[in-house]
TrEMBL record:
Belongs to the acetylglutamate kinase family. ArgB subfamily. This is Acetylglutamate kinase. One of its GO terms (cellular component) is cytoplasm. It is found in: Cytoplasm. Pathway: Amino-acid biosynthesis; L-arginine biosynthesis; N(2)-acetyl-L-ornithine from L-glutamate: step 2/4. GO terms for biological process: L-arginine biosynthetic process via ornithine. Gene3D superfamilies: Acetylglutamate kinase-like. It comes from Enterococcus caccae ATCC BAA-1240. CDD domains: AAK_NAGK-like (cd04238). The gene is argB. InterPro entries: AceGlu_kinase-like_sf (IPR036393), AcgluKinase_fam (IPR004662), ArgB (IPR037528), Asp/Glu/Uridylate_kinase (IPR001048). It catalyses: N-acetyl-L-glutamate + ATP = N-acetyl-L-glutamyl 5-phosphate + ADP. Substrate binds at residues 41-42, 63, 156. Keywords: Amino-acid biosynthesis, Arginine biosynthesis, ATP-binding, Cytoplasm, Kinase, Nucleotide-binding, Transferase. Catalyzes the ATP-dependent phosphorylation of N-acetyl-L-glutamate.
Length: 250
């Protein structure tokens, strides 16, 4: 689908939803672009787990998702974070639709490693027909990072991974992965552009690590899947680090 821009919102969602954020979305819409939002919610899930005295366990950057953790994730993502985001958009005059895996089985997934990670999944299929219908009707889909297996089991999925798969399936022209830093850093400098080949080099040199690692791996997969460019940034109106398939520097 042409002229699609996918935005993944992470961290504290309300911090992303600034006046300049909405002005940029509005500007894109005036240019005829169609916008899709994928939201995370790790901060809010951890906060709720602490309130309920449920231990937070992380393995290789992913939240180990027990049955109890999954219920909390569903409650927070669908009951707290998504309504908050849709309300902000509606107050700014946008037409939005909040979506989760149970909406026509929007996201079909499989378990990543059930014995180690519990109900953590990866995306296998996205119902693009539903998304395209909403986009043609000038709605902004706002998607929670949850999936369902073919047998109806719920999965907690990394929001970067969901955003990248949605962008890939829609053949988006741009994907923005919003985070709490202005891009990818090397030797105390924020990189303006890197290629998929550069990502491998930066990984080998251990320049990229922690939470940035799965973000860049998802970005590379999206570009290989047909997304034209991926931006890692902390503000929608700033390009941040642009990731492309073509080699930029050696």
């Amino acid at each position: 689908m042409k002229k699609v821009i996918v935005i993944k919102m992470g961290g504290v969602a309300s911090d992303n939803l600034t006046k300049s954020f909405f002005e940029q979305v509005q500007h894109w819409q005036k240019e005829g672009k169609k916008v899709v939002i994928v939201h995370g919610g790790g901060h809010y899930i951890s906060e709720m787990m602490q309130r309920l005295n449920v231990p937070v366990m992380i393995h290789d950057g992913l939240r180990v998702t027990t049955e109890e953790t999954l219920k909390i994730s569903q409650m927070v993502l669908i009951g707290q974070v998504q309504p908050m985001i849709t309300t902000y958009f509606q107050q700014e005059g946008f037409s939005v639709v909040g979506l989760n895996a149970s909406c026509g089985q929007l996201i079909t997934g499989t378990f990543l490693d059930k014995s180690t990670l519990g109900a953590v999944g990866e995306v296998k299929e996205v119902d693009t027909e539903l998304l395209e219908h909403l986009l043609e009707a000038k709605h902004i889909p706002i998607i929670a990072p949850l999936g369902l297996t073919e047998t109806g089991e719920w999965l907690n999925i990394n929001a970067d991974h969901v955003a990248c798969k949605v962008a890939e399936e829609l053949q988006a022209e741009k994907l923005y992965l919003l985070t709490d830093v202005p891009g990818v850093k090397k030797e105390n400098q924020w990189l303006k552009e890197i290629t998929t080949n550069d990502v491998s080099k930066l990984k080998t040199a251990k320049i990229i690590k922690g939470g940035m690692l799965p973000k860049l791996e998802s970005a590379v997969a999206a570009i290989k899947g047909g997304v034209k460019e991926v931006h890692i940034t902390n503000k929608l109106q700033h390009a941040g680090t642009l990731i492309k398939s073509k080699e930029v520097y050696a």
